[in-house]
Amino acid sequence: MSTEPPPPSLTERRKAATQLDIAHAAAELFATRGPHATTAEEIAQRAGVALRTFYRYFRSKQDAVSPLLTVGADRWRGLLADTEPGSPLLPALRQAAERALAVPDAQAAEALLRTRGLLRAGADDPALRAVWYRVNQESEERLVPVVARLTDGAVDPLEVRLVAAAATDAVRIAMETWAGGDAGTEGPGSPAELAVRCLERLLGGAEKG
Protein backbone atom coordinates (compact mmCIF):
# COMPACT_ATOMS: atom_id res chain seq x y z
CA MET A 1 0.00 0.00 0.00
CA SER A 2 1.44 3.38 -1.04
CA THR A 3 2.54 5.80 1.67
CA GLU A 4 2.76 8.74 -0.73
CA PRO A 5 0.47 11.64 0.28
CA PRO A 6 -2.37 12.36 -2.15
CA PRO A 7 -1.78 15.21 -4.60
CA PRO A 8 -3.18 18.58 -3.53
CA SER A 9 -6.72 19.31 -4.63
CA LEU A 10 -7.60 22.14 -6.99
CA THR A 11 -8.81 24.19 -4.01
CA GLU A 12 -5.52 23.64 -2.18
CA ARG A 13 -3.51 24.62 -5.26
CA ARG A 14 -5.54 27.80 -5.68
CA LYS A 15 -5.08 28.64 -2.01
CA ALA A 16 -1.31 28.13 -2.27
CA ALA A 17 -1.17 30.28 -5.42
CA THR A 18 -3.08 33.10 -3.72
CA GLN A 19 -0.81 32.93 -0.68
CA LEU A 20 2.25 33.10 -2.92
CA ASP A 21 0.83 36.11 -4.81
CA ILE A 22 0.32 37.90 -1.49
CA ALA A 23 3.82 36.92 -0.34
CA HIS A 24 5.40 38.34 -3.50
CA ALA A 25 3.42 41.55 -3.13
CA ALA A 26 4.53 41.92 0.50
CA ALA A 27 8.18 41.26 -0.38
CA GLU A 28 8.10 43.85 -3.17
CA LEU A 29 6.60 46.51 -0.92
CA PHE A 30 8.94 45.70 1.95
CA ALA A 31 11.90 46.04 -0.43
CA THR A 32 10.81 49.45 -1.72
CA ARG A 33 9.20 50.99 1.36
CA GLY A 34 10.24 48.86 4.30
CA PRO A 35 7.89 46.89 6.59
CA HIS A 36 7.10 49.88 8.80
CA ALA A 37 5.81 51.99 5.92
CA THR A 38 3.78 49.18 4.36
CA THR A 39 0.23 48.32 5.39
CA ALA A 40 -1.73 45.10 5.00
CA GLU A 41 -4.22 47.02 2.86
CA GLU A 42 -1.46 47.99 0.43
CA ILE A 43 -0.21 44.42 0.24
CA ALA A 44 -3.72 43.13 -0.49
CA GLN A 45 -4.23 45.78 -3.16
CA ARG A 46 -0.89 44.95 -4.82
CA ALA A 47 -1.80 41.24 -4.80
CA GLY A 48 -5.26 41.93 -6.21
CA VAL A 49 -7.17 40.42 -3.29
CA ALA A 50 -9.60 41.75 -0.71
CA LEU A 51 -8.28 42.66 2.72
CA ARG A 52 -10.48 39.96 4.28
CA THR A 53 -8.76 37.43 1.99
CA PHE A 54 -5.39 38.63 3.20
CA TYR A 55 -6.37 38.07 6.83
CA ARG A 56 -7.90 34.70 6.00
CA TYR A 57 -4.41 33.48 5.18
CA PHE A 58 -2.08 35.64 7.27
CA ARG A 59 -2.14 37.05 10.78
CA SER A 60 -0.04 40.12 10.03
CA LYS A 61 1.72 41.91 7.19
CA GLN A 62 5.05 40.40 8.25
CA ASP A 63 3.55 36.91 8.30
CA ALA A 64 2.62 37.35 4.65
CA VAL A 65 6.20 36.66 3.49
CA SER A 66 6.39 33.27 5.23
CA PRO A 67 5.64 31.27 2.03
CA LEU A 68 8.73 32.78 0.42
CA LEU A 69 10.90 32.00 3.45
CA THR A 70 9.80 28.37 3.53
CA VAL A 71 10.58 27.58 -0.11
CA GLY A 72 14.24 26.71 0.39
CA ALA A 73 13.60 24.60 3.47
CA ASP A 74 10.79 22.72 1.73
CA ARG A 75 13.03 21.99 -1.26
CA TRP A 76 15.89 20.82 0.97
CA ARG A 77 13.61 18.58 3.01
CA GLY A 78 12.12 17.12 -0.17
CA LEU A 79 15.56 16.27 -1.52
CA LEU A 80 16.45 14.57 1.75
CA ALA A 81 13.19 12.63 1.73
CA ASP A 82 14.15 11.23 -1.68
CA THR A 83 17.52 10.00 -0.38
CA GLU A 84 17.95 6.27 0.13
CA PRO A 85 17.55 5.29 3.83
CA GLY A 86 20.84 4.32 5.39
CA SER A 87 22.85 6.73 3.24
CA PRO A 88 25.75 8.47 5.03
CA LEU A 89 24.15 11.32 6.94
CA LEU A 90 26.48 14.28 6.43
CA PRO A 91 27.01 13.73 2.68
CA ALA A 92 23.24 13.47 2.22
CA LEU A 93 22.62 16.70 4.13
CA ARG A 94 25.44 18.47 2.32
CA GLN A 95 24.32 17.38 -1.14
CA ALA A 96 20.71 18.33 -0.45
CA ALA A 97 21.76 21.79 0.79
CA GLU A 98 23.93 22.37 -2.25
CA ARG A 99 21.11 21.41 -4.59
CA ALA A 100 18.42 23.35 -2.69
CA LEU A 101 20.51 26.54 -2.68
CA ALA A 102 21.83 26.19 -6.21
CA VAL A 103 21.08 28.92 -8.76
CA PRO A 104 20.62 27.17 -12.11
CA ASP A 105 18.76 30.15 -13.56
CA ALA A 106 17.91 33.80 -13.04
CA GLN A 107 14.68 32.93 -11.25
CA ALA A 108 16.56 30.97 -8.56
CA ALA A 109 19.05 33.81 -8.10
CA GLU A 110 16.19 36.30 -7.81
CA ALA A 111 14.55 34.15 -5.12
CA LEU A 112 17.74 34.13 -3.05
CA LEU A 113 18.18 37.88 -3.44
CA ARG A 114 14.58 38.38 -2.35
CA THR A 115 15.30 36.37 0.79
CA ARG A 116 18.39 38.49 1.41
CA GLY A 117 16.24 41.60 1.26
CA LEU A 118 13.73 40.16 3.71
CA LEU A 119 16.44 39.12 6.17
CA ARG A 120 18.00 42.58 6.00
CA ALA A 121 14.60 44.19 6.55
CA GLY A 122 14.13 41.91 9.57
CA ALA A 123 17.15 43.47 11.25
CA ASP A 124 15.02 46.54 11.98
CA ASP A 125 11.66 44.80 12.35
CA PRO A 126 11.25 42.40 15.28
CA ALA A 127 7.95 41.05 13.92
CA LEU A 128 9.54 40.14 10.57
CA ARG A 129 12.49 38.58 12.37
CA ALA A 130 10.06 36.53 14.48
CA VAL A 131 8.48 35.15 11.30
CA TRP A 132 11.92 34.03 10.12
CA TYR A 133 12.62 32.24 13.41
CA ARG A 134 9.18 30.63 13.40
CA VAL A 135 9.71 29.34 9.87
CA ASN A 136 13.01 27.80 10.96
CA GLN A 137 11.44 26.21 14.04
CA GLU A 138 8.70 24.66 11.93
CA SER A 139 11.29 23.47 9.43
CA GLU A 140 13.28 21.80 12.20
CA GLU A 141 10.19 19.96 13.45
CA ARG A 142 9.36 18.72 9.96
CA LEU A 143 12.95 17.63 9.43
CA VAL A 144 12.92 15.22 12.39
CA PRO A 145 10.98 12.39 10.70
CA VAL A 146 13.00 12.88 7.50
CA VAL A 147 16.28 12.45 9.39
CA ALA A 148 14.83 9.46 11.29
CA ARG A 149 13.97 7.78 7.99
CA LEU A 150 17.35 8.67 6.51
CA THR A 151 19.22 7.08 9.42
CA ASP A 152 17.08 3.93 9.00
CA GLY A 153 16.72 3.37 12.76
CA ALA A 154 20.46 3.35 13.40
CA VAL A 155 20.36 6.56 15.48
CA ASP A 156 18.40 7.06 18.69
CA PRO A 157 15.57 9.64 18.76
CA LEU A 158 17.54 12.15 20.81
CA GLU A 159 20.38 12.12 18.29
CA VAL A 160 17.88 12.49 15.46
CA ARG A 161 16.42 15.61 17.05
CA LEU A 162 19.89 17.03 17.63
CA VAL A 163 20.83 16.44 14.01
CA ALA A 164 17.62 18.09 12.78
CA ALA A 165 18.22 21.09 15.05
CA ALA A 166 21.88 21.44 14.08
CA ALA A 167 21.16 21.06 10.37
CA THR A 168 18.40 23.65 10.47
CA ASP A 169 20.61 26.08 12.36
CA ALA A 170 23.46 25.47 9.95
CA VAL A 171 21.38 26.59 6.98
CA ARG A 172 19.80 29.45 8.94
CA ILE A 173 23.20 30.80 10.01
CA ALA A 174 24.49 30.44 6.46
CA MET A 175 21.58 32.47 5.08
CA GLU A 176 21.88 35.14 7.76
CA THR A 177 25.64 35.44 7.22
CA TRP A 178 25.18 35.75 3.47
CA ALA A 179 22.38 38.30 3.89
CA GLY A 180 24.65 40.46 6.04
CA GLY A 181 27.33 40.68 3.36
CA ASP A 182 27.69 41.34 -0.35
CA ALA A 183 28.71 37.92 -1.68
CA GLY A 184 27.01 36.66 -4.81
CA THR A 185 24.50 33.86 -5.15
CA GLU A 186 27.21 31.48 -6.38
CA GLY A 187 30.81 30.73 -5.47
CA PRO A 188 32.70 31.67 -2.30
CA GLY A 189 30.48 33.17 0.37
CA SER A 190 27.27 32.11 -1.39
CA PRO A 191 24.40 30.49 0.52
CA ALA A 192 25.28 27.02 -0.79
CA GLU A 193 28.97 27.35 0.08
CA LEU A 194 28.26 28.74 3.54
CA ALA A 195 25.62 26.09 4.24
CA VAL A 196 28.07 23.30 3.44
CA ARG A 197 30.70 24.86 5.69
CA CYS A 198 28.24 25.22 8.55
CA LEU A 199 26.94 21.68 8.15
CA GLU A 200 30.45 20.26 8.21
CA ARG A 201 31.37 22.22 11.32
CA LEU A 202 28.17 21.41 13.22
CA LEU A 203 27.61 17.84 12.07
CA GLY A 204 31.10 16.58 11.29
CA GLY A 205 30.98 14.14 14.17
CA ALA A 206 27.36 13.04 13.77
CA GLU A 207 28.23 9.86 11.88
CA LYS A 208 30.78 8.82 14.46
CA GLY A 209 28.24 8.42 17.26
Structure, described:
It contains nine helices and no strands. The protein is mainly alpha-helical. The protein folds into two domains: 10-62, Orthogonal Bundle (Arc Repressor Mutant, subunit A), CATH 1.10.10; 64-208, Tetracycline Repressor, domain 2, CATH 1.10.357. It is globular and about 50 Å long. The mean pLDDT is 91.
Short description:
The protein is built from nine helices and no strands. It has 209 residues and is mainly α.
Give the overall average pLDDT: 91
Element-level helix/strand string: HHHHHHHHH
Instruction: Please count the helical segments.
Output: 9
Question: Helicity level, as a percent range?
Answer: 55-70%
The biggest sheet, with number of strands, parallel, antiparallel or mixed sense and barrel status, is: none
CATH topology of the largest domain: Tetracycline Repressor, domain 2
Characteristic terms for this protein:
Tetracycline Repressor, domain 2, Arc Repressor Mutant, subunit A, 2 domains, 9 helices, mainly alpha, 209 residues
